[in-house]
Amino acid sequence: MTVSRALSGSPHVKEETRKLVKLRAAELGYVKNAAATAIRGDGVGIVGLLLPTLVNEFYARFADTLATRLESAGLQLIIHLTADKLEQERRSLLKLREVQAAAVVMVPTPGSGTGKNGHTGEMRVIQLIRTEKSYPRSYMALVDDRQAIVKAVRRLAESGHRRIGYLGGATLLSSGSERLSAFISGLQEAGVDPQPKLIHTGIPSFAMGYEGASDMVKRDGATALICAGFEVYNGALNGLLEKDLRLPTEVAFVGYGDPSYYRWLEGGISTIKIPVERLASETARLIQTGTKGQDRDVRKRSVRAEFVKRRSCGSL
Amino acid sequence: MTVSRALSGSPHVKEETRKLVKLRAAELGYVKNAAATAIRGDGVGIVGLLLPTLVNEFYARFADTLATRLESAGLQLIIHLTADKLEQERRSLLKLREVQAAAVVMVPTPGSGTGKNGHTGEMRVIQLIRTEKSYPRSYMALVDDRQAIVKAVRRLAESGHRRIGYLGGATLLSSGSERLSAFISGLQEAGVDPQPKLIHTGIPSFAMGYEGASDMVKRDGATALICAGFEVYNGALNGLLEKDLRLPTEVAFVGYGDPSYYRWLEGGISTIKIPVERLASETARLIQTGTKGQDRDVRKRSVRAEFVKRRSCGSL
DNA sequence: TTGAAAGCGCTAACAG
DNA sequence: CTGTTAGCGCTTTCAA
Q: Based on CB atoms within 10 Å of each CB, which residue in A92, A135, A246, B287 is the most buried?
């Protein structure tokens, strides 16, 4: 007990004893056994992060920032990649529950709402970007991109575009339907009629962006394209560039997120820029917030996206 | 005990009992307490990953692949960012030891060799890319980039470059000194004299690449540049592009790693391409390998880098 | 096929 | 200020 007390900084230990204990502990390279602490219910300080992928500058930056923030609070981050697969997500949640993670930050997989996919036990759930109703007492870290999207659409319309394509996440995703609605609002404000053929949504993926983008331009005659989704924008851009479609002369393009290379590509890719670091900081805050102020507003935080105009959204 | 046996698939349980137990467990949303298992010394199935940063396509892809590989072995990945800081690294190793991680995959921080920074306890250590002698019984997952670097230098020389700059990691890093030696060999094979002014090494960082690159071109008259280090290439490229130096007409450029946007930038950035996925797979293998075949060779695996010629290394 | 005991490392609660 | 006891959830060993 004296040893335990000395090491954990209890005041009820003779100063000299403490010194001796610490010294010897260091000599032996002793480290506290987290499992033993955990088994008593003292918490291990583990936070889970469930992402579709890390191969995406937005997610990577988010994970990086979050890990750094958490580390200063003595928390460790376990990363699970779900590839937006329900089964994966289920397994990951299970694993995290086993190690008694204090919280999970997750980009919920589409459809995660149906069935008891998300048995999250004691863990605090923080839904990232998208939300699914199936996590009732969860926290939320969201992006408010409505105004940025509207602005992007209007900008395209102002430079003369009338056939503006939209590539985004499935509307069964909260984020997907909100972004699409913003897009349509934008069109309406600009007095352009929405055209069903120029709206592609689906489970977001590289492939979807890759095929969708060039199809919309070549087959459906889009002269401008807006991407709304992290997984999609990479695919779309690759699709366009590979088909040698020059920006903005052959297609105007607005991406999503702001990967560092956007500045240099084709003289600058316009984009809906998301303040990742801020989002990660807010998330860290949600994780650490006490269980006191559980008002609805405190549980939900959102950061505002911004439209960044670069060369790729120039006029026809 | 019967419950425990039923759940863990022991054959010594009546089939009916097992069914009942499993059913009820599912109803209750029971999950095994990993801490309790761990405290008995059965291992928790956690692997640590220490990286300088995740905001770098190479590291992100590595982490992604590794996490995916490990997941199929029932292992979870804890990520720690060290920012190449010794103190960070020490803290991370400690944390991982506390949770009884089975292994750590780490890009050792420069200087980690001196002092008892790396108290790794029972964990299996896998050094990634760089090596430090201070981890004596460690495993190694390395990149063999010598030939690729030599090839790159020769290619530049063949297109007429005589003032070829080198930007790379400090030579106190194993990787740094090996890459530099490859660079010099390349020059010699091509009959070009190495010039001290055109060789910049240091603790790899974005800033170093950023400043080093344009300095070497504008101040020291380099007509071509080779980057050898993940942290450096991004900085270097940004430095050049920001100063409006066009590739390859004003400077020929060879990067390191092969981020997806290299294909599209400036008509294509030449690079030393590292097979990340393969490296991650080898690493996963090193983690899971039995403690039997501990011959020196089995502990050390390396993948071969490849020189990818694109527009940016064209002639003057 | 099932159960009882014991112990993994730690600390809260209660002596001394 | 230091020590003893007990119990967290699990599985190994031994017994029924």
A: A92
- The reported pTM is 0.95
CA distance A298 to chain B (A): 28
Which of these, B246, B205, B263, B248, lies nearest to B229 by C-alpha position? B205
pLDDT at A272: 97
Cα–Cα nearest to B205, from B65, B89, B82: B82
Q: Read off the pLDDT of residues B93-113 as tens digits, 9 standing for 90 and up.
A: 999 999 999 999 999 998 886
Q: Are strands A224-228 and A252-256 parallel, antiparallel or unpaired?
A: parallel
B177 touches strand C (CB under 7 A): no
* Residues of chain A found within 8 Å of residue B39, distances taken between Cβ atoms: 33, 35-36, 39
* SS3 per-residue string spanning A174-205: HHHHHHHHHHHHHHHHCCCCCCHHHEEEECCC
- Which residues of chain A have a pLDDT value below 70? 113-118, 291-297, 315-316
Q: Are B156 and B313 in contact (CB under 8 A)?
A: yes
Residue B98 beta carbon within 7 A of nucleic strand C: no
Q: Residue A271: which residues within 8 A CB-CB, separation 6 or more?
A: A233, A254, A255, A256, A257, A258, A262, A307, A308, A310
Cβ contact (<8 Å) for B68 and A81?
A: yes
Q: State how far the alpha carbon of B290 is from the alpha carbons of A7, B47, B98, B293, B294, in Å.
A: 35, 15, 23, 7, 8
Exposed e or buried b for every residue in B10-46, given b needs 16+ CB within 10 A? eeebeeeebeebeeeeeeeebbebbbebbbeeeebbb
Residue B213: phi and psi, rounded to 5, are: -65, -55
Looking at beta carbons, which residues of chain A come within 8 Å of B238?
Answer: 260
A16: nt with nearest C1' to CA: D1
pLDDT digits (tens, 9 = 90+) for B231-282: 888 899 999 999 999 999 999 999 999 999 999 999 999 999 999 999 999 9
Phi/psi of residue B299, nearest 5 degrees: -80, -15
- A54, A60, A264: residue with CB nearest B241: A264
Amino acid whose CA is nearest the C1' of D9: B36
From residue A314, give the alpha-carbon distance in Å to each of A84, A274, A311, B2: 34, 21, 6, 71
- Cα B302 vs. chain centroid, distance in angstroms? 12
A:12-41 Cβ neighbours of strand D under 7 Å = 12-15, 17, 36, 39-41
Cα distance between the two ends of chain A: 77
